[in-house]
Design brief:
about 170 residues; alpha/beta; six-stranded mixed β-sheet; globular
């Protein structure tokens, strides 16, 4: 009897833990979101001068540094070369220009980044011309303003892990 109750407790806890986990990093088969971006070769370089960084927009691929940036929420601007490598691994980069965000926008961005914490890098990027840009390997989307949380979530769930080296973290 005790063994049966213990087994049932383990099963219930497993189900609760499974349902409470963050949304997984599965691969969508839906059409990719955002505009397609023409990319250069995905080679490793030693300086940003060797990269193809479009003015006013976050890069969506191409030459990059040898090390990726870990997924997470960053309060400081990060070097594009590390972020491009993260995109190659299937991560989504949400970059924002702090001076163009409205009240509550940063909270919305953080909420989405935390919901997909294994798949998203969130960081300020003052060089952006738009308030918020989302990029995956070969795709870029300028977020609608005011921010629409569902648009952000849809980009993440559709575009994550659709890259040359998906799922590498």
């Amino acid at each position: 009897m005790v063994v049966g109750v213990l087994a049932l407790t383990v099963v219930v806890l497993a189900v609760v833990a499974f349902r409470a986990r963050p949304e997984g990093g599965g691969v969508s088969t839906a059409p990719l979101r955002g505009e397609e971006v023409t990319l250069g070769p995905a080679t490793h370089v030693g300086s940003e001068a060797s990269m193809q960084i479009p003015e006013g927009q976050p890069p969506a691929g191409g030459p990059h540094f040898a090390s990726p940036l870990a997924p997470g929420v960053y309060d400081e601007s990060q070097q594009d070369g590390f972020l491009i490598h993260s995109l190659e691994h299937g991560m989504i980069w949400i970059s924002y220009r702090p001076d163009l965000l409205g009240p509550g926008d940063l909270q919305t961005l953080r909420k989405v980044a935390h919901a997909y914490s294994d798949d998203v890098v969130l960081s300020p990027r003052p060089a952006n011309s738009a308030p918020v840009s989302l990029v995956s390997w070969g795709r870029r989307l300028t977020a609608a303003m005011p921010l629409q949380e569902q648009q952000l979530r849809d980009f993440v769930t559709t575009n994550r892990n659709r890259s040359p080296e998906p799922g590498v973290r």
